[in-house]
Amino acid sequence: MSQNARPSPDAETPTAAQRFARGFGLAYTGLMRALEPPFAAIQKRVGIKGMAYVFVAPNMIIFSVFVALPMILNIWYALTGSNRLMIGERPYVGFDNFAALLDCKDYLDVNSCKQDRFWRAVHNSVLFVALQVTAMVALSLVTALILNGKLRARGFFRAVFFFPVLLSPVVVALIWKWILQRDGLLNALLLASGGERIAFLHDASWSFFWTVFVSVWAHMGFYALILLAGLQAIPADLYEAAEMDGTPKWRVFWRITVPLLLPTLLVVVILSLIRAVQAFDEIYVLTGGGPGTATQFIVQYIYETAFANQVHLLGLAAAASLLVAVVLMVLTLLQLRISYHGKTS
Amino acid sequence: MFKQLKSITGGLMALCMPVAAMMAATNSVKAADPTEVRIMWYSDGNEGDVMRDLLDRFEKQNPDIKVTLDRVPYKTVVEQLPALLDSGQGPDLARVTDLGGLSRHYLDLRPHLKNAKYFDDNFASTLPWFRPATGNKDGIYGVMSQLALTLPLVNTTLFQQAGIPLPGPKATWDDWAKASKAVADKVKAPYPMAFDRSGHRISGMSISMGGKFIDDDKPALVDTGFKSAMKNLVDWHANGTMSKALWGSVGGTAYRGATEEFANAQVVFYMSGTWQFTQFAKTVAKNFEWQAVANPCGPAACTGMPGGAALVPIKATKNPQAVARVVEYFASEPVYEEYHARTLFLPAHAGLAKKGINYVTDDANVKKSLAIAVEQVAQTSPIAFKFQGYEHNRILFNAMISRVNQAISGEMSLDDAYTRMQADIVEGFAAKGIKLQ
User: Fold this and answer.
1) How far is B411 from chain A (nearest CA, A)?
2) Fold of A99-344
3) Of A339, B7, B35, B236, which residue is least crowded by CB atoms under 10 Å?
4) Cα(B96)–Cα(B81) distance, rounded to whole angstroms?
5) ipTM of the prediction
6) Residues on chain A bordering chain B, Cβ-to-Cβ distance under 8 angstroms
7) Over the stretch B202-212, which tens digit does the pLDDT of each residue have?
8) pTM of the prediction?
9) Across the interface, which of A86, A287, A304 has its CB nearest the CB of B87?
10) What residue numbers bound the domain in which B346 lies?
């Protein structure tokens, strides 16, 4: 036997990655061979077109059990009364829960409403959404514009702004609670600089301000990133042409940046709107909805009505959640329409 | 032919024998498997550890029963256990504080107990607290794992530092409010008075002021006594005797204690209860002197609210006999005595209450407080006992705490808060299928 015919030692002993790939390949082939007979039998029975449904079926089962069924149950809860959990034990009350929620002499005066807490939560949510979304979009845009510019350590700053998005909402709330509480960091700084202690979390106005602030702080990085992607998609030659023409910077911003960023900006507005309506976790941990009901928003109302109070008013909570669902659905349809319009234009 | 049949039968039998032997072995293993009893348990202090220790001994004495103690936060018992029970799930036993509210899920242990008379003789005053309205009139639906009483805990070191004497045993709510504010102002303590944010905790003051709560088994929350107590709370928040930083830091019916603030010597007068003794023995230790004091007086009484936690058997259990044996063991005098001696809780056992418990503590603050607590149990108003045993008391607790909090934060007037409380009570009863109007 010649020396050339002998395989090299490297060729004889495969690397770990090669062994894994080979093993995986064998396992995959084995699995496919094992699956072939039953699938062939099913295909014979349902035909090639029916196979699409067979492949979609597992996903549909999961969707039905975890999404569709709870939705249907929620509708049924909204149409039934009592504090019982089991469907069979709950009497049908028709639209009484919706009627109770909407029973108001004047929707602007919460004290005239039968379910004043629901309307306080609605009012708080509307104000929160208006302030939070405005601040969120404005600050995200400014941040994205700065991060898109020629900035030293740009990658570092992008990471810094995105970092809070990675934190759990509970962690965010606990960090800020530690800063804002009576004996917290901010009050310690105020006292050290000769100032007075401020009731950041138990004064209604301050605590509302901080819920907006913390919420913006926690989520801004995500929207800034979307806007940054939008900014980077604007062709650079447009800016070069404007620069050659000597166009002022504000004019460049209004005539080039804003129109071309508008589809992305609208998506950001709608996404942050939906998110703001759903606000719950970090605010619940930060203020618990207090003082009084000053920072109680709609999702917290639903949660407390259904689960936290000793008498679980599941019907009322389900009805309130359906009303919120309608609002969210409108916003989602709006977003879809805008996205579709953006693509087609 | 017959021979062939015989040999086939023989062969089959030979084949079956090892299988039968294996099945018998499996069955014998199954028979030896202990029955599992699961307890959902929350702790305020060391009672979880003490209970586990006692249960370990029970398991040694009863190798056919294994007891799993699922330790959970109090919030789980309040928020998740009711949903579990409604859905027919849940543990075999649970430690609960909503004694009447969950009573429809309890199991009557009387038919399963070896000595039901022992329970009748020693727990007669608390057994009605967890009897369901539609249940057996002399049923045994659980046993108290802790008899508690709301009473004030006072930082006596702050009083000494301020040079202000402690108000006497017959001092009124007003006396305590003024004294606490004066002490706090002098020693710069941020919280002159603090109450646990709970309807139960403010009920004692209301009864002292003349509040009745129940009239002929129907809720009668808003009366002159109740209004006086609520006015006190609003006024104290307005004039700085109570700080909004505590009650104002949460909303709705959420519980908020001031244990941390008290342990950090920031609170002069803390309206809480006997269940805090163990915790403060550990967290305060020798940092400052504290003690329980007699409940302040109003025109009608000087009372706290009784309460506590009970170990209740759940109807859905598959092992009622084993559950009854666990409860019987826990309620037996030596075990019950040891549990209370080590946890520093007040016993609900009449014999032990009479005999007295030799508490395992060297802490002078705790010893003094326990002596006062025992005295205070005897002075507790019958209205307070009746209200504690009222099946729907939680509906009233929730209504008062959430609405008075809105009055305190300035969202509504006290009169509007009373109207809303009444509406909440009607709504709560309606959800339970009871029409009040």
Assistant:
1) 7
2) MetI-like fold (1.10.3720)
3) B7
4) 9
5) 0.77
6) 81-86, 111, 114, 116, 120, 181-182, 199, 201-204, 287-296, 300, 304, 307-313
7) 999 999 999 99
8) 0.81
9) A86
10) 35-147+307-355
